[in-house]
Structure formats: structure tokens, C-alpha cells
């Protein structure tokens, strides 16, 4: 009984081994075959008469017009109208193909076209590793997606991930844009593309540049990091990270952003920005600063939020809350600001005028020019559009001018409306109208104090020299007194509403942020580096070579190269086999038939040799 069990186990193991061996063998069907040991030792030469030669092996099927099959080596070479199919998702057409059943390694050349549910790959030559489930080309290829066409010199397809890796001269062509890059990983099912190295996305109205980025080729949205920027016709946006939506012409930038206006020679910086191209508007927050060049001097404006709107010829800057302005010869603060650079108008505004709280006083617009301080509900500064120099300023409602006396005290002028005039960017004349009051330290030419003059009048005209009051003229004076200094109490040396804010004055650019805490920057979500690409060509096991000795390829062909150098199909036709040009063209859909005149040992080949670039 025991011996009987041993015999059964032995027979079962032999049967199982044979089944495994038979599972690895390539099955075939053909209309005609013959042997020629002198020309093809150990091979069957097969030809199509009515039906194409048909090979089957472990889930892959191949059809062709002619074939040389080395049965003992489990290897064949196929010629003419080659079709290869793996399952229901992969099909491939080519002029020539070969397949090693032992290593499940295939090679195709001549008008290769591989189809997947979402994409079609076209190339001159393609390597296909069924064990790895990867395909590879290096002679230039084109992938047609549902939305775009992708081309590159080198490409690799990962079947399980449905992913392409494109290298060298990579280009995506879409009706709305063109992408150029050194390296793109593209996922067919989603249409997602990951860009590595210097890359551009160029559309009709914008160009995106990055050195690492993500783009949804079907949704037309992208995310870019590392030296990323967006160029519009007259505006450039830079930042540590950028988001871009082509559908809505929207872009946002995060951390260390710059929005450069090339048309108006200005720039806005900050740590967050949103750009609406169709509305010609930009909003910037988190320490935003707008800088523009005027008369060879830079003007800086900072607030909690900056908004830039309008076409280049009519661009408007608005700032909201805690506005601070700095120029080498002037500075100011307000609750909000309006700047029309083309018209040469700057307005400092209090959004809630009339309030008298401590908070409201801080919001009131204030402007410093030298030792002169001007306040009011609204301050308007006008520049000469041609020279870009300061021309005039206007203070509306509750105008108050304070000039720090050269020795002690403050000269003060107040009224409802103030107009100041400039020469060479220096304030030289001020007119104040309606219910004006002055408190003025009158001095001799030697700067000796005469007394303190306090006057009421309808209008006052003040002239400055070297940023100091030189002369004061009163019109329709109602009341005025000049008293010696000792006769004027210190409590009476200020007019009602006096508020000297000299400690708030901006003396340098860094004062734009004086007393403010650094903003908390968002942690940028990076884009992972590409996975390290392993060599496509490697051996399965020791002694189990990818290539068969009868392959048209040579061992040196299985090297990763910048450019392919595989010999043409025609030069690899076995010696002694007569070549007949094929009449089949995949685009024409015609069939090639073997006529009675066809020689017994002839094989159909592509109409022209395989072109390798």
C-alpha cells in the first residue's frame, strides 16, 4: 500500500511538472508551415494563407502574416501586420515583433501603436516586459490622451499604475496650452501630470514656469513649487507655491510672493496673493508692501490688505487698515489708501471719519514732510504725471498743520480745507480756508523768539523755506494777539485738536512693520521627488537571458541609451529569405495576402526599413 502511494505521488509530481512546462510553452495556429534546417535550424517558418499566424502564451495573443518560430527555445519572430493583445486592456500593432516565452520579454518595431483604454502610444520601437508589466521606448514616442498629445524622446509605461514616465524633450500639446519639460510623470486614468526640472506651461494669455509642479491636464488646474512663477502680458506672479486654474483665469501664491507690474514699473510683495486675470485684479495679504518708482525715488505702501485693480493704463491700488506709506522725503499713515498712479493721485482716508475715540484718532490720515505734520479726514497728494514729482496736496475737513519749531514748541494751523504746493518735492506754500486758527512762534531773522502769536482769520497763507515756516499771511483776520512766551501758559500753547504724532513717523523703510509681529507662514505642501528609475533591462535569473540567441537584438542593444541605435527591420531579415514589401498600412486598414506566386520561403516585411532616430 505504501509503495502504491509513492508511485501515485511520483506520477502526480511528473504530471504537475509537465503541466507547468506545458503552461510555459507557446501555442500556435497557422495555415502553412515548413522547415528549412539549413537556413533556420530548429525553427518552423509559418505563413498566412487565409488566416494570420496566431500565437498564444499565458494571456498574450499575437497575430502576424509570417513568423519564424523556434519551438525548443519558446521564441518567435513575427513579420507583417503584427497584432499583439494582452487581456482586454492592451493591444498593439507593429510591422515586426519578437517574443521570448521563457522570459516573457517582447520587442516590437516599425509603426508601433499600443492602445490602452485612456491612451494610445505610437513609436518606432518598443520593449515590453510582461513580468514587470512595463513598456519602454527611447527612439521618440507620442502618447495621445483624451485631452492632450504627449511626446518625448524616452518613455516608460507602468501597466499596473497606468503611469507614463517621459524623459528628454517632453512636450504636452493641448488646444489651450503647451507644456515643455525635462521629466513628466503622467497618470492616464486621471490625466494628472507631475513636472520635474525646468518646465513651462504656455497658454495664449499666460505662461507658468516651475522646477517642480503638478498639473491636471483634464481639469486645467495646477500646483507649482520651487522657483515657480506665472507670466501674464504685463504682470508676473512669483511665490514659494502657486495654484493656477485656467478655467476661471485664477491664480494664488503663498509665502514670499511678488506681483510685478511691468507696465507701471511697480511691485507688490507679501505672503499670500490672489490674481483674477479677467478682472485685472490682485489681492495681497500677510505683510503686503507695494513699491513703485517715482522721480527716481521709491514709494512704499503697506497695509493689512492691498488690492490692485484695473487695466494697465488705469491701474488702481487700494490699501485697507493700518496703512503706512514711506518715501525718502515723505511718510504717512491712514486707515485706508487709494492710489491712481497714472493720474498721479494718492488719497489717505479714514473709513469712519468724525469719531473721536482713541482708536479713531489713530486711524485719522497723517502725513509728514520734514518737520511738518498734516492731518485731516482725507489727505490727497497729487503728482505731476510727466515729471513724477510732487505737485500739490489737499486736506479735506478738520485740516491741521503742525510744524515743529526749530527750538521749542509747535507752530499750529487749523481750518476746514488745506492746499499745499511743492517745488522740487519740497513743500513751499500752504493755504488754509474756513475758520482758520494759528498758533505761531514769531522769531527775528537771528531766530530770536519775539512771542507767541495766536490768531483767528478767514484764510491763511504760509510760506516755507528749508522745511521751516518763513512767513504767515492772514486774510480777513478776526482776532489776533502776540504775547511774550512767559505770558502764555503751557496749557494754552496748543490749539484744540492738537495731536503731534511724531513718534509714529516713518524714518526708514523698515518702519513700515514697526510694532508688528511677523506673520505665521503656511507650511507649503511639497510635491514628492520622482521615484528612482531602475534600469529597464535586467536578467530574470542566472542563465535565464532576456534575449534569445536568435533575436534580431544584440546584448548591447539592451542598454539604457539617450538615443536608440537598433538596426532596421529589413537588415535583420534572416539570410536566404526573400523579402516582399507589405501593402498594409495601419492608417489605411488594408490587408496583405500571400498569392500563389509567393515563394515558399518568403516573408512579408514593412514597406520601408525601420527608422530609428
UniProtKB/TrEMBL annotation:
Keyword annotations of the record: Cell outer membrane, Membrane, Signal
Basic and acidic residues bias spans: 551-563, 588-613
Keyword Signal among UniProt keywords: yes
Name of a matching Pfam family: OstA_2
Stretch forming the signal peptide: 1-19
Top-level taxon: Bacteria
Protein name: LPS export ABC transporter periplasmic protein LptC
Record gene name: lptC
Amino acid at each position: 500500500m505504501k509503495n502504491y502511494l509513492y508511485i501515485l505521488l511520483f506520477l502526480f509530481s511528473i504530471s504537475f511538472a509537465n503541466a507547468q512546462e506545458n503552461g510555459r510553452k507557446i501555442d500556435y495556429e497557422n495555415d502553412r508551415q515548413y522547415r528549412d534546417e539549413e537556413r533556420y535550424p530548429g525553427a518552423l517558418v509559418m505563413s498566412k494563407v487565409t488566416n494570420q499566424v496566431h500565437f498564444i502564451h499565458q494571456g498574450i495573443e499575437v497575430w502576424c502574416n509570417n513568423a519564424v518560430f523556434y519551438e525548443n527555445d519558446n521564441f518567435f519572430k513575427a513579420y507583417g501586420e503584427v497584432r499583439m493583445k494582452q487581456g482586454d486592456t492592451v493591444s498593439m500593432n507593429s510591422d515586426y515583433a519578437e517574443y521570448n516565452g521563457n522570459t516573457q520579454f517582447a520587442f516590437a518595431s516599425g509603426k508601433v501603436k499600443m492602445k490602452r483604454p485612456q491612451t494610445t502610444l505610437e513609436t518606432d520601437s518598443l520593449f515590453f516586459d510582461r513580468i514587470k508589466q512595463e513598456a519602454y521606448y527611447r527612439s521618440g514616442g507620442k502618447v495621445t490622451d483624451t485631452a492632450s498629445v504627449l511626446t518625448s524622446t524616452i518613455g516608460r509605461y507602468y501597466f499596473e499604475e497606468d503611469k507614463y514616465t517621459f524623459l528628454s524633450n517632453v512636450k504636452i500639446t493641448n488646444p489651450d496650452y503647451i507644456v515643455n519639460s525635462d521629466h513628466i510623470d503622467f497618470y492616464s486614468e486621471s490625466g494628472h501630470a507631475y513636472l520635474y526640472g525646468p518646465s513651462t506651461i504656455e497658454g495664449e494669455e499666460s505662461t507658468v514656469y516651475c522646477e517642480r509642479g503638478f498639473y491636471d491636464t483634464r481639469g486645467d488646474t495646477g500646483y507649482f513649487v520651487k522657483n515657480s512663477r506665472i507670466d501674464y502680458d504685463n504682470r508676473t506672479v512669483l511665490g514659494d507655491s502657486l495654484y493656477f486654474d485656467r478655467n476661471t483665469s485664477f491664480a494664488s501664491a503663498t509665502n514670499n510672493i511678488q506681483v510685478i507690474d511691468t507696465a507701471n514699473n511697480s511691485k507688490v510683495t507679501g505672503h499670500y496673493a490672489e490674481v483674477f486675470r479677467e478682472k485685472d485684479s490682485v489681492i495681497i495679504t500677510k505683510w503686503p508692501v507695494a513699491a513703485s518708482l517715482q522721480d527716481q525715488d521709491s514709494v512704499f505702501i503697506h497695509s493689512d490688505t492691498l488690492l490692485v485693480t484695473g487695466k494697465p493704463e488705469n491701474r488702481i491700488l487700494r490699501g485697507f487698515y493700518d496703512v503706512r506709506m514711506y518715501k525718502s522725503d515723505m511718510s504717512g499713515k491712514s486707515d485706508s489708501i487709494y492710489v491712481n498712479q497714472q493720474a498721479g493721485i494718492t488719497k489717505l482716508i479714514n473709513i469712519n471719519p468724525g469719531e473721536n475715540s482713541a482708536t479713531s484718532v489713530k486711524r485719522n490720515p497723517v502725513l509728514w514732510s520734514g518737520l511738518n505734520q498734516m492731518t485731516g479726514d482725507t489727505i490727497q497728494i497729487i503728482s505731476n504725471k510727466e515729471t513724477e514729482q510732487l505737485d500739490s496736496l489737499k486736506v479735506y475737513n478738520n485740516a491741521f498743520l503742525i510744524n515743529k519749531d526749530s527750538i521749542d514748541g509747535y507752530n499750529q494751523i487749523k481750518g476746514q480745507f488745506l492746499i499745499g504746493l511743492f517745488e522740487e518735492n519740497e513743500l513751499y506754500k500752504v493755504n488754509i480756508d474756513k475758520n482758520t486758527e494759528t498758533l505761531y512762534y514769531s522769531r527775528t531773522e537771528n531766530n530770536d523768539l519775539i512771542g507767541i502769536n495766536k490768531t483767528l482769520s478767514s484764510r491763511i497763507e504760509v510760506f516755507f523755506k528749508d522745511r521751516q515756516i518763513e512767513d504767515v499771511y492772514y486774510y480777513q483776520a478776526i482776532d489776533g494777539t502776540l504775547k511774550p512766551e512767559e505770558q502764555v501758559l503751557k496749557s494754552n500753547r496748543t490749539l484744540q485738536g492738537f495731536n503731534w504724532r511724531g513718534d509714529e513717523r516713518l524714518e526708514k523703510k523698515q518702519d513700515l512693520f514697526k510694532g508688528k509681529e511677523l506673520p505665521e507662514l503656511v507650511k507649503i505642501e511639497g510635491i514628492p521627488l520622482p521615484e528612482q528609475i531602475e534600469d529597464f533591462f535586467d536578467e530574470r535569473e542566472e542563465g535565464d537571458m532576456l534575449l534569445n540567441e536568435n533575436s534580431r537584438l544584440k546584448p548591447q542593444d539592451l542598454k539604457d541609451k539617450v538615443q536608440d541605435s537598433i538596426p532596421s527591420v529589413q537588415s535583420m531579415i534572416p539570410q536566404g529569405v526573400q523579402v516582399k514589401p507589405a501593402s498594409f498600412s495601419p492608417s489605411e486598414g488594408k490587408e496583405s495576402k500571400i498569392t500563389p506566386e509567393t515563394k515558399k520561403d518568403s516573408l512579408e516585411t514593412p514597406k520601408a526599413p525601420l527608422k530609428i532616430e
